[in-house]
Amino acid sequence: MREINIIKLENELNYLVSLMTNNTWDFHPDPKPSVEQVRKAYHKGWYQEDRETFWIEKDNRKIGLIIIHDISDSIPSFDIRLDNSVRGKGVGTKAVNWIIDYIFCLPDKKIRIEAYTRSDNIAMRKTFSKCGFVKEGYLRNAWENMDGSISDSICYAFIRSDWENNEITPIKLNELPY
């Protein structure tokens, strides 16, 4: 697969609306946001306030979106959205690896990156694992969906020292029985 480019979201509301409404987001709380919802969120600052938002581009085509949340915090998290046509083709892995390097190269020395996904989002779970994220927790009934259902979620993290030393430090989750 050819390389992807990551470009900061500017004032490209129409492209944002197109990406968000022409795809389905089965593993997000609202799998099919409306044009009005996307426009309202954009104008209220959802893609900007304490966030950095980037386009994922390939061959000059916008194929996805990266939203880094809590960017001013020492422990940011992120959301990634990929166009239906590029899912399962390695774009997510390249984008997540870019996110890791971008966040840990920021001048304010982030401690760790947290990532959450629904427990049934197997593709994202595989991507996190492939990119070196460590599964740190299984959260029961922790993901509220717009249809009123509740899903379990998984918490992953990548810590700065692992990135700096190119290693994966095992967690001590089961060191004690309680």
Brief synopsis:
Helix content is 26%, strand content 31%. It has five helices and seven strands. The strands form two sheets. Strands 1-2-3-4 form a four-stranded antiparallel sheet, with helices on both faces. A three-stranded antiparallel sheet has the order 5-7-6.
What does this protein structure show overall?
The chain has a single domain (5-165), classed as Aminopeptidase (3-Layer(aba) Sandwich). Helix 1 (13-21) crosses helix 2. The model has no long low-confidence stretch (mean pLDDT 95). The protein has a four-stranded antiparallel β-sheet with strand order 1-2-3-4, sandwiched between helices. A hairpin with a 5-residue loop joins strand 6 (134-144) and strand 7 (150-159). It is built from five helices and seven strands; from the N terminus they run βααβββαβαββα. The protein has 178 residues and is of the alpha+beta class.
Largest sheet: 4 strands, antiparallel
The residue ranges in which pLDDT falls below 50 over 5 or more consecutive positions are none
The structure class reads alpha+beta
Mean pLDDT: 95
CATH top level is Alpha Beta
* General form: globular
Query: What does the radius of gyration come to?
Result: 16 Å
Share in helix: 25-40%
Topology as a string of helices (H) and strands (E): EHHEEEHEHEEH
CATH superfamily: Gcn5-related N-acetyltransferase (GNAT)
Number of alpha- plus pi-helical segments: 5
Q: How much of the sequence is in beta strands?
A: 25-35%
CATH fold topology: Aminopeptidase
State the total count of DSSP E strands: 7
Just name the CATH architecture: 3-Layer(aba) Sandwich
Q: Record the strand order, biggest sheet.
A: 1-2-3-4
End-to-end C-alpha gap = 46 Å
Number of discrete domains: 1
